[in-house]
Design goal:
The strands form two sheets. The protein has a six-stranded mixed sheet with strand order 6-7-8-3-9-10, sandwiched between helices. A four-stranded antiparallel sheet has the order 2-1-4-5, with helices on one face. The protein has one domain: P-loop containing nucleotide triphosphate hydrolases (Rossmann fold). A hairpin with a 2-residue loop joins β9 and β10. It is α/β, with parallel strands linked by helices. α3 packs across α4 and α3 packs parallel to α5. It contains eight helices and ten strands. This is ABC transporter ATP-binding protein. It holds the Pfam family ABC_tran. It comes from Sporosarcina contaminans. Belongs to the ABC transporter superfamily.
């Protein structure tokens, strides 16, 4: 599903160069739920931007569903991102004056796909994320947890190949965070949705199939739910 091969990313401020990613190798299987953790500045959010086609690597290759993002022209990458990648952000990034229904429908409008069939799909998503009765409520009047539910429905209504979540519970208390993580797990489990989530919270990472630890711009360590010491690892990390 996702192959990252020897990816580097450099930024320049004047003549000063900063290497954020220093040769990242990563494979993510179709239907896998992966959490990426690491300290601030380790490169995890930069990697997520590259996976989403929001930026391009300095060197290396990024392949998603047999498409080479780093070889695409900007226009083609924009279309690929709109149709194949779903995004969920920490600050929700909803249109505050639009309703729940309008926010969820927005990417379908942008891609010229809104029809009676899709209107039915939107209502199904509203039910799935538990927002029945709030269809006509403006996003700015919702709680944080409700806004994040709208954001998840909006990200998934186009049936993306990959869902990228950048600190999706960062602005929520533990109760609301668990609700959102349970919802993501439901889409992963029931619809085989591939999810890549950046988080600083080991509690959130514990919902994933695999945890990838970033350090100094490279993958430092990985641990899978299939590993016998997975539970022990989480317990030690949270202690």
């Amino acid at each position: 599903m996702i192959k990252v091969n020897n990816v580097t990313k450099e930024f320049y401020q004047g003549q000063e160069k900063t290497e954020v990613l220093k040769g990242v190798h990563l494979h993510i299987e179709e239907g896998e739920f992966v959490a990426i953790m690491g300290p601030s500045g380790s490169g995890k959010s930069t990697l997520l931007q590259l996976l989403g086609g929001l930026d391009t690597p300095t060197t290396g290759e990024i392949q998603i569903s047999h498409k080479m993002l780093n070889e695409m022209k900007e226009k083609d990458r924009t279309v690929f991102r709109r149709r194949q990648i779903g995004f969920v952000f920490q600050n929700y990034q909803l249109l505050p004056n639009l309703t729940v229904e309008e926010n969820i429908a927005f990417p379908l409008h942008a891609d010229g796909k809104l029809s009676k069939e899709y209107e039915k799909l939107i209502h199904e998503f509203i039910q799935t994320v538990g927002l029945e009765g709030l269809e006509s409520k403006q996003a700015k009047l919702l709680s944080g947890g409700q806004q994040q539910r709208v954001a998840i429905a909006r990200a998934l209504v186009t049936n993306p190949t990959v869902l990228l979540a950048d600190e999706p519970t960062g602005n929520l208390d533990r109760v609301r965070a668990e609700e959102i993580l349970t919802l993501l797990s439901k889409f992963h489990r029931d619809y085989k949705q591939t999810i890549v989530m950046v988080t600083h919270d080991i509690f959130a990472a514990g919902f994933a199939d695999r945890i990838i630890l970033f350090k100094d711009g490279v993958v430092d360590q990985e641990i899978s739910r299939k590993d016998s010491d997975y539970a022990k690892y989480l317990a030690n990390f949270m202690a």
